[in-house]
């Protein structure tokens, strides 16, 4: 996608968000929602973000997406649950992002712990120290931190150690063929054990069938996300 098209998408704000519920697998109740950016101009959002080379343009779009997600969530009829917003590490690392998010949430009279900053690994992390500093500021404001797609990217396990997130979301790869893979089952069990030891919430992504759900429950997974549980929808 050309730079001009990206800039037009930003100028016209030609995007919106769908919200996918996160469920407690035992009670089948919704505990939160993940905001997913969508646009008639974009076929694959992840690839779209990866294609943007200009850092300032990427930052502007990412912050605008965050603003829209919070606005949509606040203006919806949802009365409970938390909001997960996907944010690039480079955006989180900018000096003003913690204060930007704090001001945004205050404007909508939301509590910081209603908002989970979900780090998405769509880019290489160039300055881990800056990221750690910004993450600590976000935590000081009262926001929660989640690491998305754990096990997919090359640095996700390192980020678990360095950033001490409140939540980890295990990549859908580990859910695929889960009933037939003892290795995937053991990996999930080991991550659940780690989360219990470190007081970290564990969410399994990609639950797309009854067998996925059954095995996840047997392994001790308490929270999950996937099309079998609930599809993304407009609030």
TrEMBL record:
InterPro entries: Cyclic-di-GMP_PDE-like, EAL_dom, EAL_sf. It holds the Pfam family EAL. Gene3D superfamilies: EAL domain. Coiled coil: none annotated. Residues 1-235 form the EAL domain. CDD domains: EAL. PROSITE patterns: EAL (PS50883). This is EAL domain-containing protein (Putative c-di-GMP-specific phosphodiesterase class I). It comes from Alkalibacillus salilacus.
């Amino acid at each position: 996608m050309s730079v001009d098209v990206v800039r037009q998408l930003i100028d016209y704000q030609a995007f919106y968000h769908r919200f996918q519920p996160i469920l407690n697998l035992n009670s089948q109740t919704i505990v939160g929602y993940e905001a997913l950016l969508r646009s008639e101009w974009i076929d694959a959002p992840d690839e779209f973000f990866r294609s943007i080379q200009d850092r300032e343009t990427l930052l502007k779009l990412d912050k605008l997406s965050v603003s829209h997600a919070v606005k949509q969530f606040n203006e919806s009829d949802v009365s409970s649950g938390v909001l997960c917003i996907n944010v690039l590490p480079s955006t989180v690392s900018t000096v003003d992002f913690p204060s930007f998010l704090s001001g945004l949430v205050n404007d909508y009279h939301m509590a910081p712990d209603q908002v989970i900053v979900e780090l998405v690994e769509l880019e290489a992390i160039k300055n881990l120290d800056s990221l750690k500093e910004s993450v600590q500021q976000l935590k000081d404001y009262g926001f929660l931190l989640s690491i998305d797609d754990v096990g997919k990217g090359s640095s996700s396990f390192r980020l678990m150690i360095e950033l001490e997130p409140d939540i980890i979301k295990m990549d859908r790869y580990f859910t695929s063929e889960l009933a037939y893979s003892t290795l995937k089952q053991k990996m999930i069990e080991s991550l659940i054990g780690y989360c219990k030891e470190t007081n970290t919430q564990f969410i399994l992504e990609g639950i797309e069938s009854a067998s996925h759900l059954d095995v996840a429950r047997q392994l001790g997974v308490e929270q999950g996300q996937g099309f079998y549980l609930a599809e993304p929808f407009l609030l």
